[in-house]
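User: If only I could read backbone structure tokens as easily as an amino acid sequence. Those tokens are not coordinates but codes from a learned vocabulary of shapes. Could you go through the record with me and say what the backbone is doing? Here is the record:
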Amino acid sequence: MMRQFELVETVKSYDANVDEDALNRAYVFSMKAHGAQTRASGDPYFSHPLEVAGILTGLKLDGASIMTALLHDTVEDTDTSIDDIEQLFGKDVARLVDGVTKLSRLELQSEQSKHAENFRKLVLAMSEDIRVLLVKLADRLHNMQTLHYMRDPEKRKRIARETMEIYAPLAERIGMQSFKDELEDLAFRELNPEARESIVKRLEFLRQRGGDLETRVSQELQYALDGEGLKATVRGRTKTPYSIWRKMQVKNVGFEQLSDIMAYRVIVETVPECYHALGVLHARYPVVPGRFKDYISTPKPNGYRSLHTGLIGPQRQRIEVQIRTREMHEVAEYGVAAHWLYKQPDAELDSEAIGQGRSVDGRQYRWVRELLDILEHASNPEEFLEHTKMEMFQDQVFCFTPKGDLIALPRNSTPVDFAYAVHSEVGDTCVGAKVDGRMVPLKTPLKNGDQVEIVTSKAQTPSPDWEKFVVTGKARARIRRFVRQKEREQYHELGRQMLQKAFRQEGYDFTEKAVAGVQKRFKAENVGDIYVYVGRGDITAREVVHAVFPGAKESDKDRKIVPIQQRPKSKGGRRDHAVPIRGLIPGMAVHYAHCCHPLPGERIVGIVTTGKGVTVHTIDCETLENFQDSPERWVDLAWEADETDEPYTGRLHVVVANEPGSLGDLSTVIGKNRANISNLKITNRSVDFFEMLVDVEVTDVKHLTNVMAALRASPVITSVDRARG
């Protein structure tokens, strides 16, 4: 265990201006606060914060960060309060300690929600000061190093999964490769010990068989570069067992097929020398196709810059070579910490200035801003955690805006993901996309190097269908928030109209005041919630009426359904008191039945489904027979009188002659009648005929009737009918 004077001297070795007195007081305070507490290993508990502080001195962090490491568990595990920390060590240290605290006092319902809430607060804290994340990662690293002392195997696995899913990706996002590698490997040891042991044994076998192969390859690469007058340092390394395992899983290849089990780093002085070294090696050794990546001209979002290439190198070994400058190498190893002010010899800033400086502001990092945006739009901590895992745990593609700005996205991202990455409003109003100048569907997966131009419209809003194909957490969070908000609006409007109709049917005047009087009975906070419950089908409109007027109650079994075909119509075909549905977004409060495909102009009825809203059927739909015993679920519906160009889908059963050009004639006739084929399925084929189902987008039933008449006039069409079921 590091002694007090050793810690102080270590910090002074790279920060001559550190407040020695405060550092000494923090050491003593933490040791006394933890007192006789012990860890699972049997060591004094104080050894943990001291080891965390030691890890951070390796990154040459400032005095405030080291004091935070010493104090980070005092608020959680002792009687110390944040106010005590602020009074003794200042606002800067108190704010950092508060950000790092595990927040175990949160009274949440489940372990998962507790973890999600803790992570949500960590993101908020690190957005204010990135040092919070550095201390937290060091804390997690030491906990993982001592995880094997914990007796409960389930708890060990839970901590290891949490490390793999959250903390290792976070370390990668800030470029701390050494932290990421060690966290992943320690978690891998716990989660899949057999696989790790197998890879370790195979690596050991390779070392024994190849002898000092790593040294020989390094020397030959060094000789090749020296011969061209390049001052370079060559270092070899074996990849970690987990990174080897993950590549085997992702690429679906065996151990022997991996080309980069051995990786070599060539470190030079300048960027031109990086490309010079690349040319030397490519001229001397065969290149493995598809293995070259230029992260110097196109850096990773975490600031990583390097040239990667695969070679059949010295000793006929398949190797990966990474070429970078010394500065790039420090960033690659230590990420954010490599830019720390105290690593500059001429830095003369006190800790307060650093605490206020831009170097610690987490929001300067794009990925932190994206996490904050997800946080703003997620409905609960668990959803935030889900979107965040999705955001951080995927490989990336790099695309460009028309102005040449680089946008990094997870693999399989679409133009909608790209639009949200550019700006939330661009995503919300996205109507189309051009990739390399060509219009493409919004669900098209993007590839490395694509130039993407987003077409927007002020009239556009996010589509619920987008959630089926977007992959970024930010896009999914924005879409879900819009859908939740819009669904509530739709349920509110539909429920209000259903209640008005129910009141009229029972002979009462509808008033909001009357409905407000029973909101407590239905556990609603306001009248709007009652409307939403009715529109969503959680309660029926008649239940609300009977709650307001108990004397009006009658048994559903005694209530007879008057066939809708026999109900009187008012002028213009609109039934009296029918609930209008035009203006409600399909797929939210209303759903059009796929068994009958109702169209404007047809008589319609709705069936209320709990939690889903209303499903619209035509009045002659055979499916309605299944609901004859549930009169409370029927809603009399009508289309609004005003006409719009909104497309509706009508399904046709068509028999076409089996001859060249017949399908072309079919689509030509439909197109000439201002309709559009949205789907086509051949159900039967014989020598003479095709039978098919054709979904046609039309404006109303009259439009579909005209299309059917035109099809029947075509000589290649044998028959056309509305498809049912």
